[in-house]
Amino acid sequence: MNKARASKSEARQRIVETAERLFYAEGVRAVGIDRIIADAEVAKMSLYNHFPSKDDLILAVLQYREEKFDSMFENWISHHVSKGTDRLEAFFAALKDWFESPGFRGCMFINARVELADAKHPASKFSAQHKERFHQMLQTIIEESVGMKSAKTVAPAISLLVEGAIVTAVMAQSSQPADVAREAALALVTKAKRK
């Protein structure tokens, strides 16, 4: 890779990382392009060379956030599994780890979807697709506990418990909703196993 291309890639990455930090902390609509440019220490032209509009940047940030979040969440699950916890309980332990992480402000995908308000916005569509992928990952973990047939019945309810826990954790500024959701999910799983 030549020096100019490497510099261009570094500038793009710096813009995305800066925007991700600011959007998560303050919201996608509250943070302007000039603030991102200043914090990322790039020229305005550099930003617009990579992202023709703020909407393009928002989408790129959410794509970056998904990779980062998925990796972080899977690492937390693996950490708990390595201690002997089954994957479903490890999922809820990871959820609690996330709620207790510094700067936790809920789900960036929920936050962005609410702020954008337009279901047809590319970033709104991506946020909805992220949630589908996240719920599919959870369903796969549930299938390990109760089998595929029972998982199809309880997974949607457990997904709602998880989403409710995320919102409640932000509102209450507490990690306790992860424990409440875990207990309710385990009760559903136990009931499904008896059938």
Question: What does this protein look like?
Answer:
By secondary structure, this protein is an all-alpha fold. The chain folds into 2 domains: about 1-50, Homeodomain-like (Arc Repressor Mutant, subunit A, Orthogonal Bundle); about 60-195, Orthogonal Bundle (Tetracycline Repressor, domain 2), CATH 1.10.357.10. It is built from 9 helices and no strands. Helix 4 (about 55-80) packs parallel to helix 7 (about 120-145) and helix 5 runs antiparallel to helix 9. The longest helix is centred in the middle third of the chain and has 29 residues, at about 55-80.
Characteristic terms for this protein:
195 residues, mainly alpha, Arc Repressor Mutant, subunit A, Tetracycline Repressor, domain 2, 2 domains
Summarize the helices and strands and which ones pair or pack.
Blueprint lengths: L2 H24 L6 H8 L3 H7 L3 H29 L4 H13 L8 H9 L5 H25 L1 H25 L3 H19 L1
